[in-house]
Amino acid sequence: MALTGLEIYKLLPKTNCKDCGFPTCLAFAMKLAAKQAELSACPHVTEEAKTALESASAPPIHLIKLGDDEHKIEVGNETELHRHNKTFYHMPGLLVRVRDDQPLTEVEELASQVDGYSVDYVGLTLNLDGVAVQSVSEDPSTFANCVKAVRAKTKRALILLAENPEVMEAGLAEVEGTTPLIYAATAENAEAMATLATEHNAPLAIRANGLEALAELVKELKDAGVENMVLDPGARDFHDSLVLLTQIRRLALEAKPDRLLGYPVITFPGEGTESKAEESMLASQHIAKYSSLIVLDHFDPAIAYPLLALRQNIYTDPRQPVQVTPGIYEINEPGSDDQLLITTNFSITYFSVANEVEASGRPAWLLIADSEGLSVLTGWAAGKFDADKIATTVKTSGISEKVGHKKLVIPGAVSVLSGELEDELGGWQIIVGPREAVDIPAFMKLWEA
Amino acid sequence: MLTPWATIPLISAIIQPATPGTYDTDLEGVAVMAVAVAIPKKKWTGQVRDVVLGATEADGGTRSKTVSVGGEGTLPFLDFEAPMPNAPRVAVEIKDRRPDDWSPILLEAWGDFMDDPAEWAKAVEKLDVDLLLLSISLTDAEGSETTAEQARSTVRKVLDSTGLPLVVFGPGQTEKDIEILVAVAEEAAGERIVLGVCDDKNYKTIVAAAMAHGHLVDARAAMDVNLAKQLNILISDVGLPLDRVLMDPTTAALGYGVEYGYSAMERLRLAALQGDGMTQQPMLVTPGEEAWRMKEAKVGEDVPEAWGDWEERAISWETLTATTLVQSGADVVVLRHPESVRRIKDLISKLWKKGE
Ligand code: B12
Ligand code: SF4
Fold first, then answer.
1. Residue B32 and residue A255: Cβ atoms within 8 Å?
2. Residue B43 falls within a domain, yes or no?
3. pLDDT digits (tens, 9 = 90+) for B238-249
4. B-chain residues within 8 Å CB-CB of A85?
5. B270·A280 Cβ contact <8 A
6. Are B110 and B55 found together in one domain?
7. CB-based contact A169:A134 (threshold 8 Å)
8. Contacts (Cβ under 8 Å, ≥6 apart) of A275
9. Is A350 in the pocket of ligand 1 (CB under 6 A)?
10. Is B33's pLDDT higher than 60?
11. Which of A83-97, A312-326, B128-142 is the least confident region?
12. What is d(CA B249, CA B254) in angstroms, rounded to the nearest whole number?
């Protein structure tokens, strides 16, 4: 958390010498707090104060990068407990775990499935972020082979999991040129793991049970020169991981000035649960509540899709609804006799409709009104998608020059607007479409120009 | 791709003032010393009201149990800072007749029970849930408008066939809701059922019916802290005590705006904990209805391969919507599929009172 003006003032020389260009130290402190001045403008500040001020202005949660340029993931740098206060910035990575005691063919198969998985959601292509490779064998060459097999199938981010530094080293040798996460340093192996992390310039996950043990280990590793860390507080079940992750987030944002726990957190929802269904619920809890790297033990498209959509939703900036540009959209190369439908420019609305029109296989014109990013009913209730707005859109869009007929399909949800619209758009016939977009293809089949 | 992305300025309605930073942490100014970590507890000054649904014989009803909701003095499940006396409750929605537009997956799950609300209600009771929500359709099976008499007799049948506390929703059109809920309130006099939805258009009549016959209301406002609060004020001004009001901040499905509901609920709950007495109602939300309207739950054919198995995806759509809402403060979640009920009960049993 950034320091207030008064807190900064306490760290300044308090001589009011004006060398910084401000009349008093307090005035300068206020400007610093508002980020309208640079600390370097004061030539008299002590080294000690400088360090304190710099560490207070660092982001409360370290930014950690994994993977190579093409498939980089960045986690951390969060500043909020609740998304509505501003936004959550860096979506948690979702990775799937393989184990080195599985047959290699199985490992390869899973790695390629994870690598190739992609799903369209409101015009975005959503992917999983990578693979976590676990050493169960405890044998360096078995682990190395497994890592190698995975690496051959995916260039996405990797997490290597082994407690034995020798095993870890063998795995790391297979991933030169990319940045994996090393999991994990514990009280037993911290020194050796720190050396590996430094040598390979890779972030290091550390695991300890509970906050104090974790903070102690962080301190030890920090002193050993490790900068990029990821935390595993050890909790595995629903309740304890909610509590511990919340506490870690609060400590990172609010405990000042020393933020020992200001690092992203990694979770393993499959470890605290007994089924794929339970794992999916715990993973969704982790998405909403403060995990930055989520390692799944099941890969199932029917679950990956909702998890990816949820992650997208929770990390949408609440200050900026996702919109598309209003205007005329041509779907399946329409001609002047083809159907004309209208909807709003809220991206979820637009894509629900556009995807169905496209799927119908029939050519059509889709007119997008500027509802300022509101859905059909929200827009209607807010006066941003009412009869006036629809009529104006039709008149000013230039659509009459493109279609030869005067028939406009409106969403079923605003069927009450049809009378008013026929009045405002003299000569046009208003057709009420279905309520839900799913039913659009069937509806379009009935069309006659 | 069809669309060039546009970044357009903010919608004014969405930028609401951030939660005021009025709550204290006992951390202010405290450094995390060496490695002694001070557990960051918030000192909340408010708590959610305790609301009791249903009346047993002792209180003049016929329910086999009553159900308490709300009462928490902290954010969901953070029982290290204040108690959460009641688990979030699971309700199951049934209709007065076989619905026309439900997903085939739901039709298969409930089968013939759907032809008789009394049988359907009994099947729900066997799932060992807390509450039953009966929603009345706009029209009957023949397509004529459902009459108040029909609604009354359905409610009677359902009351007679199960002992679960009941929530009754009208079809969702102001005039029709008033007509039906007034009759239902009379039929169920003394049972402490919840009448819904009660909104800014119908509240006077619905609240009067609740007061006359000893019921509660479900106060629904459109995902907005101030609207929710205002409706609570209006309802209490008419004279209904606030321990007979659930608030329903409206929800949307995963992928279709769940984040708006999630944040509206978090903001309402923070306001309640910070001591705002007009936001301290337990929250009821309807993830089942929302999730099952969506294509992901409704449609099994001609969908992308990446959507995976239809049934698993559909049930996940409902359960992950509900999980998210439970995490943001839902006190009652209304579900539709029996497997989702099983999963969400499992979730709640793993979250609730595990730290005490
Ligand atoms: C999320 C939401 C919001 C979000 C905004 C989201 C957004 N960007 O639009 C927020 C919280 C900001 C909001 C605010 C308000 N909301 Co609002 N909101 C909702 C909610 C929960 C979901 C809406 C949504 O996104 N649906 C998903 C999209 C994809 O649906 P859709 O656009 O309708 O599109 C579907 C169909 O219509 C169809 N379709 C779309 N286009 C077309 C075109 C054709 C030709 C066809 C055939 C079909 C078709 O396909 C889509 C998929 O099936 C609904 C309630 C609900 N659960 O539905 C209330 C709801 C829409 N809101 C409502 C209201 C009243 C408001 C406010 C006015 C409240 C207020 N006074 O503050 C404000 C207005 C905002 C403003 N002043 O700027 C009411 C509207 C009531 C009414 N019938 O008039 C609703 C219904 C809630 C309620 N029951 O009271 N809201
Ligand atoms: S230069 Fe430094 S010491 Fe002098 S007034 Fe500015 S802040 Fe104070």
1. yes
2. no
3. 999 999 999 999
4. 18-19
5. no
6. yes
7. no
8. none
9. no
10. no
11. A312-326
12. 16
| pLDDT above 70: residue A437 | yes
**Per-residue pLDDT, A258:** 59
Residues B308, B174 share a domain = yes
* Domain annotation covers residue B260: yes
What is the distance in A from the centroid of ligand 1 to the CA of B54? 33
| A122 within ligand 1 shell (Cβ under 6 A) | no
Q: Check pLDDT > 90 for residue A396.
A: yes
Q: Measured between beta carbons, which residues in chain B are less than 8 angstroms from residue A319?
A: 10, 14-15
- Average the pLDDT over each of A35-44, A74-83, A360-369 and give the range with the smallest value: A35-44
The ipTM estimated for the assembled molecules is 0.89
Strand partners, A183: A161, A205
**SS (HEC) of B314-330:** HHHHHHHHHHHHHHCCC
Ligand 1 atom closest to A371 (CA): 9
Confidence of residue B35 (pLDDT cuts 50, 70, 90): low
- Contact residues, chain B, for A271 at CB < 8 Å: none
Cβ-contact A145, A104 below 8 angstroms: yes
Residue A45 CA: nearest ligand 2 atom is 2
Q: Which pTM value belongs to this model? A: 0.89
Of the ranges A27-41, A225-239, B313-327, which one carries the lowest mean pLDDT score?
A27-41
Q: Is the CB–ligand 2 distance for residue A15 below 6 Å?
A: yes
| A64-314 matches A5-56 in CATH topology | no
Whether residue B44 lies inside any domain: the answer is no
From residue A248, alpha-carbon distances to A82, A100, B324 in Å are 14, 32, 20
In whole angstroms, what separates CA A426 from the centre of its chain? Answer: 47
**Residues B7 and B145 both lie in one domain:** no
Q: Do A310 and B31 touch (CB under 8 A)?
A: no
Range of the domain at B3: 1-38
Q: Rounded to whole angstroms, how far apart are CA atoms B287 and B252?
A: 7
CATH architecture of A5-56: Orthogonal Bundle (1.10)
Instruction: Say how many C-beta atoms besides its own lie within 10 A of residue B7's C-beta.
Output: 7
- Give A-chain residues touching B5 at CB under 8 angstroms: 123, 324
Smallest Cα–Cα separation from B131: which of B55, B245, B54?
A: B54
The Cα-based distances of A200 to A191, B63, B151, B218, B222 in angstroms read 14, 66, 71, 58, 52
Residue for token digits 């009001």? Answer: B245
Mean pLDDT value across residues B107-134: 98
Give me the residue label for tokens 């300044």. A12
**Ligand 2 pocket member A13 (CB < 6 A):** yes
pLDDT at B93 over 60: yes
Residues B268 and B248 reside in one and the same domain: yes
Same domain for B22 and B160, yes or no, is no
Whether the CB-CB separation of A197 and A168 falls below 8 Å is answered with: no
Q: Are B61 and B207 part of one and the same domain?
A: yes
Pairing of strands A327-331, A364-369: antiparallel
| CATH assignment, A327-448 | 3.40.50.11600
Please answer yes or no on whether B298 and A438 come within 8 Å at the CB atom: yes
* Burial bucket for residue A228 (CB in 10 Å: 0-12, 13-18, 19+): buried
Instruction: Choose which residue among A28, A30, A50 to substitute to test ligand 2 binding: the one with the highest number of ligand atoms within 8 A of its C-beta.
Output: A28
Task: Tell me whether residue B70 is in a domain.
Answer: yes
Q: Which residue type does A128 have?
A: L
Residue nearest to atom 21 of ligand 1 (CA): B252
Q: What is the SS3 assignment for B340?
A: helix
Do both B67 and B33 map to the same domain? Answer: no
B189 and B81 assigned to the same domain: yes
Tokens of B95: 């209709």
Domain CATH number, residue B139 = 3.20.20.20
* B172 Cα nearest atom in ligand 1: 89
A64-314 is a CATH 3.20.20.20 domain:
yes
* Ranges of each domain in chain A: 5-56, 64-314, 327-448
Q: Which helix (H) or strand (E) holds B206?
A: helix B203-213
Number of folded domains in chain B? Answer: 2
